[in-house]
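QA checklist item 7 of 12: single-chain prediction sanity check.
[x] sequence parsed
[x] length recorded as 267
[x] structure emitted
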Amino acid sequence: MTPAPCVAITGAGGSLGQALLRRWHSRGARLIALSSGSRPLQMVDDHGKPIPLQQVQWQVGAEAELAGLLAEVDVLVLNHGVNVYGDRSAAAVTRSLEVNALSSWRLLEQFAAVVSARPADPADDPKRPRAEVWLNSSEAEIQPAFSPLYELSKRLLGQLISLRALDLAGPRLRIRRLVLGPFRSPLNPFGVMSAGFVAGQVMAQARLGCDLIIVTPNPLTYILMPAATLSRWLYFRLLSGANGGADHGAGPAAADPARRHRSEGRS
C-alpha cells in the first residue's frame, strides 16, 4: 500500500492555499506550508481539530534554499502570486514577473532536478508515489483579467510550462496545469467562486487523471485553453530542442551559456 504523499504548497497563507491544504489533509497527506509571511499558520479541520503541518518561510529569489526540503516532497503545488492591478512601473514589472512567473519556473526546474535523482523505475521505490508539480497559471493566460501585468506574467508562466514540460514531464515527474477562474481571495475580493469550491474541483479533476485542470464559470475557457496548450505543444516541439538532452532536469543553471561553456572546457 502506497503511503500518503508529502505535499508542499506555496502561497499557503492565501485563500486557495489554505483550501488546498485542507483538502490534502482530508486525504491523509503530510503537509508543508510554504509562505513568505512570518505569521504562524494555524488551521483546523471540519471537526475543529488542528491540522498538523510544517510551516516554512521562504522568499522569491531564494528558491535554491529549498533544495533540501524538496527532497522530501512528492507533490509540489506552486500557487503563489501577486496582482499589482493597474501599476505599470518598472518595480511592478519586476515584481510581477518574478513572483508570478520566474520563481515558479525556478522551483519547477529545481524540483525536476531533485526528482531526476530518484529511482527511474517506481518498482525500485514502491513506497513513494510518482512526483507531481501543480502550477497555478490562471485563466489570465488566455483571457483579460483587467490587470495588464498579471496577464503578462501569467502568460509567460504558461508559455514556460508548455516549453519545459517537453523535457521535464515523464515517468518520474507529472506536471499538472491549474487554469482557474475568478475566486474570492485577497487578490480578488470580487471573485464569483469560493476558494473551497475551487480546491474541491481541482482535487476531483486530479483524481480523474487530468493534467489540464480547468475550474471557471466561463465556458469559453474550456474550449480556448485546450486549443492553446495543444498549439503551443506543437509549436515548441517543432521549433525547439533540448540541446542534445544536456539540460533535462538540470535546473536553472542549464540555461546559463557561460556555465555550460566552462563545464565543457573541463571535459
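[x] summary fact logged: Residues 141 and 152 are 8 Å apart (CA to CA).
[ ] second reviewer sign-off
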